[in-house]
Amino acid sequence: MGLIIVRGFTELRCSDQGKHGNKIQLDGGTRLFLYQLVGTWGQLLFPRPWKEFRLWYDIHKTKGIKPYLEGMVTTGWYRKLGDKIWTPWFIKFIHARGYFNIYTNFLGDRALSVSHRDAGVNYGKSAGPDSYLLDESSLDFNLLEMQPLSDLKWYDFCFREVLPGRVIEHVDELGSVLNSVHKSKTIILVSLYEISEELIRNLLCHFERLNILNYVFVGPDSSFLHDLARRGHPVIDTNKFYNSIKARKSIDFRESGLELVKDIYVKSYVIKKSLELGYNSWLVVGYTVPYSSESFVDSYTRSCDFFISKDKIIFFVRSSSSAQKFWVDQVIAKLGKMSNRDYSARRALGFMYVLDDVLENKITKFGFGVDTKDNAVEKNVFWFPEKGPDLLQKELQNSSMWLVDDNLSCNAVVCHQS
User: Looking at 58-206, which runs of residues are DSSP E strands?
Assistant: First the structure.
């Protein structure tokens, strides 16, 4: 799970956090918690992650890469002091790997380690100890009592709670996750099918920058999918989810081993469930880059029940009883009648082309509005997949829309008040 440090926790200075981070608030019963930010005084470093850090450090030093992480005060320290301090290096490493640190919270300024803050490099004059060393005489709890990691609270650099391990594998798990992530009755489904990790990481950085949290990733089982879940992003495993739908026999399936078929069926079911819960749904391919926090709202598609972009990269459906009925009677029914050859040339945009076929042939008959104008969602930027990943990345860089570094992690920490 990326646990690398145990440290006595008394009080973390505001300057250690991402700028504008949330105030640290823990209840009196919390003895252990996980926090991304590392304090480099009084920590216990486990051998394996320490070796991993040293190898990472040596590689970056050899390449002349600096540990810059915008939004963190330690970046300013490094620009001023250089390699006289190593805290910025460790923070950059943890951020790149998505690791967390174990902290203790013993209350009463008690800790497993104490900084005496003597006069020297960090203090012009002695400031005295920052906490009291925990000993047997001050124990008022069971020191050896340990909770499962799943029961502990996890927090990111901004001290915003992280919920790791949300891998949806069964239809019964879907509703609770959609209920927990929606914003203003809207869900964003992000397709991982045949999209490069670099593009998805870049999209995540834009989500973080804009404080967009109402998303769920949909893709096949992979180490990347599980890494996203480990870092706190909700994901749907299409392979296992497909099998759970099939077991329910809720859709007229045609036998097929095509991954694309599974991807299409799963997306259709997730949108069906979202409509049942009363949520509007966006489905986007990873080529999409949002401009603002208002990129995925429905105000500019209010006259339409459905929207699909001409490039087949983004789709929107508004929640209503009529849209829900149309989805089941027309979209899902259409999928059940298609043969494998209908899917064979679809590839990453397969589901969008199926939707386009259904909307074009059925939408007028059923009295829905549909919009396919390029400027219908003017607050989003759409990048065409035909350009290829290298050219696409270059264009994003030239437009200052490429927000990942050589580690494929965001080049900045952006905190929002929760």
Answer: 100-104, 110-111, 132-133, 154-155, 161-162, 167-168, 186-191
Q: Find the Cα–Cα–Cα–Cα dihedral 80, 82, 85, 89, rounded to 10°.
A: 110
Confidence band for 253, pLDDT divided at 50, 70 and 90: very low
- 236 — phi, psi (to 5°)? -115, 120
* pLDDT tens, position by position, 364-402: 444 444 444 444 445 566 666 667 777 888 888 888 899
Question: For residue 347, what are its two tokens?
Answer: 């590839």
Strand segments, DSSP code E, in 157-286 are: 161-162, 167-168, 186-191, 215-219, 235-237, 280-285
3-state secondary structure of 184: coil
* Closest C-alpha to 315, from 257, 263, 252, 380: 380
Q: What domains appear along the chain, each with residue ranges and CATH number? A: 3-155 (no CATH), 164-398 (3.90.550)
Q: Which position has the token pair 């002695």?
A: 126
Nearest one of 305, 206, 317, 225 to 263, comparing CA atoms: 225
Tell whether pTM > 0.85: yes
Can you spell out the DSSP letters for 285-312? ETTEEE-STTTT-SGGGTT-SEEE-TTS
